[in-house]
What does this fold into?
Amino acid sequence: MTINELVGSVGLKPLSTFEDRDISGVFVSDMVSDVMAGAKSGNLWLTIQTHKSVIPAANLVDVSAVIITGGKEIPQETVELASKYSIAVLSSELPTFELVGKLYELGLGK
Amino acid sequence: MSECRHQWNMTNVRFGFVAFEKCFHCSGVRTFFSKEESPHLGEAYREEEHFWSRVENAQSLRFDLVCSECGRVEDYTELMGLLHCTGCLPECEVEILQQKLEKEKTWLVVAFGHLPPGSDEPFSPEKMKILTDHFNQRRDTSRSRIRVVSFSLIKDFTVCKGEFIHDVGMLSQEPPAERKPLF
It folds into this structure.
């Protein structure tokens, strides 16, 4: 599954400009240090963090997209930095738990 | 010379805090890694002519790298954190290199040693290459690459506005109104 396919499947709102790519797995964390240690290339990263610091961390470990859950407002400078690195920043109105359930149903957790 | 085509993975991962202390007498800054469970701010104490006070705690991690092929371990005890260059100083060597590498879809990351920097370079070129290899081995390098360089390239720490990839200020919903120098 690619990012663009996922966007339509679970009602995500794309905020940054990005190159479409394949998704491989999901990583859920609200700590950049946790992501630096454990996320894998192509993972979707689900977080409630909107701070700009998430983008260099996402870029460092090559996640396919950052999904900000819970309908949080995302600062423009976060979106602009993501666009520079072609990282997809997607917004979801769903809480993390509900979104994880939907992603699992789509087969992304298997 | 080793024939191994190293595959580097993180090992000995320890989560903790990078504590920043500032001396209000000389304005010096020093850092150390702490594994305390409840880090605190503001505690001041005197040490010879210095009056140190803890001004920041950044959640972070400490790690080593191990080669999954030959078992070699590379120690990164001296790594205080990784810095995202914001391009604040056009004449800074980091920014000059960043501009060049971005054209090749290579993203620059600055490895920072603990402060104050000593007289010896804490990161050998080989250590930087291994760290670079580790992050590139974790990514799809057909899309882009990572290059890690030492903080010794930074022209002037006192005016640097780079941003640590640390868990600090993460709960704020508002971006800072103005970027301030690191130290």
